[in-house]
Amino acid sequence: MIKDYQTKNKQILAEGANSLRNPIKAFLLIKHLVIDWKIIENLMMQNVAKVFIRRIAEERIKQKIKYPTEEDLTGAATAIFRLQDVYKLNTKDLSNGKIFDVGSNQNLSARDCFLIGRAAYRAKDYYHALLWMQEAYDKVQKESEPSFEDLQDIMEKLSFALFKQGNVKRALLLIEQLKEIAPNHKRTAKKIKLYEEALKKEGFKPNEFRENIPPMENRRFEDETRYRTTHIYEALCRNEIPIGDEEISKLYCYYKQDHPYLLLAPFKVEIVRFDPLAVIFHDVISNEEISIIQEVSHSRLERAQVVSPATRRREPASFRISKNVWLENNEHEIVERLNRRIHLMTNLDLKFAEDLQIANYGIGGYYDVHYDFFMKDSPLLESLPQGNRIATVLFYMSQPEIGGATAFIPIKTTVLPSKNGALFWYNLVRSGEGDHRTHHAACPVLVGIKWIANKWIHEAGQEFLRPCGLKETDQEAFVGDLGGPVPKDHSNIRS
Predict the structure, then answer these.
(1) Does the pLDDT of residue 373 top 50, yes or no?
(2) Which compartment or compartments is the protein found in (predicted)?
(3) Is 3.30.450.150 the CATH classification of the domain at 246-458?
(4) Which pLDDT belongs to residue 82?
(5) Spatial CA neighbour of 455 closest among 293, 253, 277, 318
């Protein structure tokens, strides 16, 4: 056991950070540090090695090394479920370390599949529990020396997941098989009675309980029509909804030169949508700046939080999985430099903008569908003298191999991460009302790691920089549009 642990340690050290770029490898790494280490620790305790264990713990505290916990292992399993759903990944392929026809040298054992399925089971997520317990059952039967204890656990939980997903006859057959191989199992009799009672309620007679077994069902949602937004979001994350030809024909790129400074160093701008306006500024943050920001932020990253409308405090939320840190304007010259650049990019005043938020999205990291602006009736808005969030600037500081796109649901638009670039959009229409077309999400990272930096700019100070239009429907044709010629037809150079 100890030799196996040492071998795995050497493999992990050889791969370095790459072991966190693949969701299966990341799960196995966390499992190695949570479960495998606990086994080693128990073995050492039996051999009177308490002093060594204490020294290891003290050294970890001294070096500020945090080992993952059971909660982290559950989070890694939940991330796998999320990735499965969004990117339509096959359970068997995943268990064999395969993602979109790309294999790895890491396969999951029956025990690994059981641990993943158990996370779903404990959360009463019987859809994913069934997928992974079935895979664990298939694998354990092929193992040369399967653990009898694992087999019992798998069969019991698989039978109950089958039952909860409407496969009552299959559940009954499986739990009876478990009773045969483990007559003294404590819970089989109770479950057999439960399943038989359910079949009686469905109108089956006792002699029909084990006949005409229907195909297995495993529905993710009971009512698919209620989850239309979810399906659109997931399709956008897979980049399956293309922009129409008519819309594409209107899009273009241009050099932004509406400031004397930009005559020598114009911004490269790509318009990705007009209704509402969304653009990408290309090559606006250098690799050197990215490295410095990551270095400054890395040791301070903590679980990302959202502002709760009820408590008005920042709290962790299941719909936002990432780590973040806020960098104040005077914290580093890079932050001040980015602020000046954002002003030139957006033509907006940053006096009342929020601090620069740095976020890191690891295994399955995402931010579910949300608005960046606050609703008019939100008590949070009342406490903001600087007004609502008028605009968002989102710098891409890395480029995941797969996933991590920004998806706008109402306008069905996917923006893939482009390292060194920045995505910009207005959160409010020119009248100051929230623009509901900006309902968006950060898609989960499938392979790789995603770093972003974002700046939320508020309404105060923008009265003359982004005034109301003459009509309620007026909106920008380009960034900083005050009624001048569009860049496509004329160089937007300030006179």
Answers:
(1) yes
(2) Endoplasmic reticulum lumen
(3) no
(4) 97
(5) 293
